[in-house]
């Protein structure tokens, strides 16, 4: 089975910023947006972005003297990968066990439960249409 690459919390913070930005972004732009008061060093952000390139979350393109970065993985794909990893390690590969846990946990609001019910109903309708085709 292919190992799923995961984001650390600090890497997730950088990716959240990058996903919200235009197609290409520099280390300076990420640093200025996330750490306007210099809470982290520029070189730390640069190192983390290069790690994200190595992990295939970002692509890097050098134009002149400047490196531009862009997301190679969408937020949705990263969420899918993280969820698969969680399900594989905690729920023995069962998405149903994850869903059961979430519903029974008491952590979901009534609005969230209603949204999940609607999603399930829509999925069941879609499955029914596919079976009848």
The CATH architecture of the largest domain can be named as Orthogonal Bundle
How much helix is in the residues? 55-70%
What is the straight-line distance between the termini? 33 Å
Could you tell me the mean pLDDT? 90
> What is the H/E string?
HHHEEHHH
Rg, Cα atoms, Å: 19 Å
The fold-level CATH name of the largest domain is Arc Repressor Mutant, subunit A
Q: Write down how many β-strands occur, each being a DSSP E stretch of 2 or more residues.
A: 2
CATH homology group of the largest domain: Winged helix-like DNA-binding domain superfamily/Winged helix DNA-binding domain
**Strand line-up of the largest beta sheet:** 1-2
Spans of at least 5 consecutive residues with low confidence: none
Approximate strand percentage? 5-15%
What is the overall number of helices? 6
Tell me the quaternary state.
single chain
Structural class: mainly alpha
Keywords:
single chain, 133 residues, Arc Repressor Mutant, subunit A, 2 domains, two-stranded antiparallel sheet, 6 helices
Summarize the structure.
This protein is 62% helix and 9% strand. It is mostly helical and 133 residues long.
How would you characterize this protein structure?
The structure is a single chain. This protein is mainly alpha-helical. The protein folds into 2 domains: 9-71, Winged helix-like DNA-binding domain superfamily/Winged helix DNA-binding domain (Arc Repressor Mutant, subunit A), CATH 1.10.10; 94-132, no CATH class. Helix content is 62%, strand content 9%. It has 6 helices and 2 strands; from the N terminus they run H-H-H-E-E-H-H-H. It has helices at 9-20, 27-34, 42-54, 75-90, 95-104, 110-132; strands at 58-63, 66-71. A two-stranded antiparallel ribbon has the order 1-2. A hairpin with a 2-residue loop joins strand 1 (58-63) and strand 2 (66-71). Helix 2 (27-34) packs across helix 3 (42-54). The radius of gyration is 19 Å and the shape is elongated. It starts with 8 loop residues before the first helix and ends with a helix. The mean pLDDT is 90.
């Amino acid at each position: 089975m292919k190992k799923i690459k995961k984001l650390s919390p600090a890497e997730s913070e950088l990716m959240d910023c990058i996903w919200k930005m235009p197609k290409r972004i520099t280390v300076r732009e990420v640093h200025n947006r996330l750490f306007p008061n210099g809470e982290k060093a520029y070189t730390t952000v640069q190192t983390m972005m290069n790690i994200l390139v190595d992990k295939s979350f970002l692509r890097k393109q050098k134009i002149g003297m400047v490196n531009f970065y862009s997301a190679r993985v969408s937020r949705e794909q990263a969420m899918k990968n993280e969820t698969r990893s969680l399900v594989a390690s905690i729920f023995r590969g069962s998405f149903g066990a994850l869903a059961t846990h979430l519903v029974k946990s008491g952590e979901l609001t009534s609005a969230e439960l209603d949204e999940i019910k609607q999603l399930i109903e829509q999925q069941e309708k879609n499955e029914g249409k596919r079976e009848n085709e």
